[in-house]
Design goal:
binds cobalamin, 475 residues, single chain, 6-stranded mixed sheet, Rossmann fold
Length: 475
Amino acid sequence: MKKVLLVNTNIEKAPYPVPPLGLCMLARACGDEYEVKVYDGVFAEGAGLVALVEQFNPDFIGFSIRNIDDVVMDREVFYMDEILEKFIHPVKAVTNVPVLLGGSGFSIFPVDLMKMTGADYGIVGEAEEILPVLLYSIINHLDTDEIPNLITAKKLTVQKKSGFKFLKPASGRFSDIDRWIDFNPYSAKGVYSIQTKRGCSHGCIYCTYPLIEGRLFRPRKPSDIADEIENAHQRLGHITFEFVDSTFNDPKGHAESICREIIRRKIKVRLRTMGINPRHTSEELFELMLKAGFVQIDATPDSASPRLLGSLCKGFNLAEIQKMALMIRKFNMPTMWFFLFGGPGEDSSTFHETLDFIDAFINPADLVYMNAGLRIYPDTPLYKIAVEEGRISAGQSVFRPPLYYYSGKISKTELDGLIREASLTRHNCIHALETAPSQEMISEAVETRRVQQLDEPMFRTLLRIRTAWRKAGKI
Ligand code: B12
């Protein structure tokens, strides 16, 4: 049996460490025909990898590249140097077997990353069907020219980019992350990731999700999702499950069906999700989510200015965001809100429209995260806009340094000043550049939660401490 080593190169641990769900799904997809091992770099950061390569002696090595940069304009974190230094270079120094790349970051910048790493093959987007075909083709010296979404060192262009349409619905794909990696380090701080669908039909101008996952929502069956949660819960005990879909409550009715299935089976778990789309929210959805075990959600409207919602092509309107915010308050669903300023047409009046919404509608116990500057990604409408407005030239690489779009109607200094002022005068608003809570603050939060036996999300405890410290002039 040929051997495949899959390496997770993601070492980012903020806002919390995320398990390599996609890589484990690939391991499962190849696991019957190949002997597969997964090396998880999140905590090990490359330690022991070379020894594993020498001892396991794989026939293929696949590196997953998830994060390229951290999408915070002024922080300029670029992950690739460390990925090369800790994972790819040491491995290439001890073996000549074919090197394969994939992952969400890779799917955005396949050509740049093939060049930067010197890899032999890369797959853009999901790879459960394509990777086994590629391995088979290499082993049997077959032509790889017809394999969709493949890029090779020899050609450096992605083949049949529309290959997503050849792929199956995402149903039937189970993940069993803890079979492939040691889940213990994630149990305390992290989450168990669950994907309920692939694809995104929305048209947000800056977003990469449709490029990574395709444009069609391809939901899994609620019974499969509930099976996955139930099984992992039985194996791992008290852990939090997090949905990693582009938007959880799309297509309409999907989230409700999942909640109903979890409730019907009486699975008692803690759930959280990112990406709640205001358009498809209802009181029924919130009731079901609370009953199913949701302890926290993320709401990412990006803006609450009608003009910006239009220019960002968010696909929902202010009234829908307001309605969602009212329901979040009514059901007291702990929520982290995310706003992204500086999109096309942003000026101080649109900024204040969003701020007015925050003041009037958001539960003060909830966190509001404010970021500015939109990362420009290739093949997105924002890239086109940036070219049309003369910010970048046609075909210009935005890989490194990471390039950002900023509205021409307000200076960066002015917008930054507005965000800083808002975050200083509102206890629950946080500027994206504000560093993670100090160890001292975290320790106090942990102690408060223990003494008061709090079960609320950590961010709510931290927010209260932050407010108290501010009042006391401690920060
Ligand atoms: C969910 C998510 C989050 C959640 C994670 C929750 C969780 N429990 O995992 C949260 C909100 C916490 C988050 C945080 C961040 N995220 Co995020 N996140 C995502 C999202 C939407 C989905 C990732 C996912 O789980 N996909 C599902 C799995 C099944 O798919 P997959 O891993 O991609 O794997 C498949 C393929 O890629 C491929 N594949 C994967 N590996 C390999 C390897 C080989 C060899 C091959 C052949 C194929 C292959 O096959 C797999 C199976 O089909 C992506 C966008 C997207 N749609 O992909 C952004 C995304 C990955 N995040 C991104 C970023 C930047 C971040 C942050 C750095 C942001 C920040 N400053 O905080 C942090 C980093 C957190 C960390 N610790 O790493 C960027 C990365 C691009 C970039 N600019 O670098 C993305 C692409 C979004 C974007 N802006 O475009 N994120």
